[in-house]
Amino acid sequence: MSNTSSDVIPQWGTYMREIYLNGKGPEPLGTVVFEEIEKKAIEKLKDLPGAFLYSGGSAGTWSTYTGNTIALNKFRIIPRMLVPCNNRDLRVTLFGVTYPSPLILGPVGVQGTFTAEGEYAPAKAAAKLGVPFVMSSASTRSIEQVAQASGNGPRWYQLYWPRHEEVTFSLLKRAKENGFTGLVVTLDTMSLGWRPHDLERSYLPFGHGVGTQVGSSDPVFMARLGKKPIADEIPEFPYDAVTKQKLLVDGDPTAKDAAQLGYAWLAEANFGFYRSWEDVKPLRDNWEGPLILKGIQHVEDAEKAIDIGVDGIVVSNHGGRQLDGAIPSIYALESIMKSEKVRAAQKSGKFTIMFDSGIRTGSDIIKAMALGAQAVLLGRPWVYGAAIAGQEGVEQVIKIILADLDISLAQAGLKGVADVLGRADQILTKVDF
Asked: What is the DSSP code string of 5-44?
């Protein structure tokens, strides 16, 4: 499946036929089942303690993570029969741009701890298939490096909100100059969540200068430290946290410099400086493209986002990585979409609703869209694909979930995603197993 122009309907479901006909099964991952891909990623990273759980782990007891999938499973699709749903149309228009599907690769940090390709793997895979890629502020490559890898692919920039306005504006300037068209501001990670699996190992790649490459390449941030920006830095792979920490304890000057820089970047972007709604205005004033707030879970926050003039939200609980015991993201979406104000703003075209946290299958996407999401962000599955097989692994994950979506639409008697959006009352029922 290749990138296509917006006037051609991509036929994602043909990927299933390709697998049957090639006689070798799904390559390079060897499976189309999320749980099996996850197991393969665990095996691949077994000699890198802490690496898998940094992405795969969650806050506290993992109750938010497990709650996301349990809640999604309580919504059930009601199929219709004898519907001529040939040539199903998965295309969506977001912020005036038509994309081949409602799938977006969500932002995930420190990818250079999972694969030698780092952020290049998803950037290139997404560009090849026409899927928007959201680059994380915690990337192991600079804004400029990721833009180059992405080429003409659609890309947005995710902002971990710096303390200092001049640093924020510098990041926005670089993102704009490098072709990032959307700004996704993460609201639920002003500080790191309580993650026992990371705490038990003291696993924090930033403390060794890994995942700080956006900061270390920024002229304004580095000037605050009395340093010059570092261009084209690529952290060593594999990342060995134990060895890096030993070098630091032994006083290795390079390790000390990396730690100083890493903790300075954490203090700038992720160590407990909490914002207010009034703080959004400077972002709005300094970003001409779509401004999207990620991490909205309460209906009043969604309505407030409309009031202050942002262009959209991502209903998300960060995949369960921030607050243990939080509401399942799909329940938050259901609640938010009951608001007349939200529905009216969405209908007017001035406010876009997106969703993440728990998406694993095509049916999950149908459920989220039926409840009102216009697009979904995918996280862990593509990270696991990257860990196993780099860019090709990410490409396969994209093809898997979109083929699943395409075929599930047909099985449900739906002609395309336009038939799904906001029609939960006709498409879904809610059960209590």
From this structure: -TTS---TTHHHHHHHHHSS-STTTS---HHHHHHHHHHH
What was the pLDDT predicted at 191?
85
Polymer length of the chain: 433
Nearest 5 degrees, angle CA 231-CA 192-CA 214? 10
Q: Where does 257-300 show beta strands of DSSP type E?
A: 291-296
Task: Say what percent of the chain tops pLDDT 70.
Answer: 98
Measured distance CA(295)–CA(333) in Å, rounded: 11
DSSP run (H or E) holding 222: helix 219-224
Q: Please determine, for residue 89, whether its predicted confidence score (pLDDT) is greater than 50.
A: yes
Active site residue 318: yes
pTM: 0.95
Annotated catalytic residue within 164, 197, 298, 318: 318
Phi then psi for residue 156, to 5 deg, are -120, 160
Flag the least confident range among 104-113, 176-185, 190-199, 214-223: 190-199
Return the structure tokens found at 96.
Answer: 């005036």
**18 Cβ neighbours under 8 A, 6+ residues apart:** none
Cα–Cα distances (Å) from 331 to 315, 322, 366, in that order, read: 10, 17, 15
- Whether residue 51 contacts residue 111, with contact meaning beta carbons closer than 8 Å, is answered with no
Say how many C-beta atoms besides its own lie within 10 A of residue 280's C-beta.
20
The residue to which tokens 């999207």 are assigned? 292
Q: Where are the alpha helices (DSSP H) in 75-137?
A: 120-129
* Burial class of 338 by CB neighbour count within 10 A (0 to 12, 13 to 18, 19+): exposed
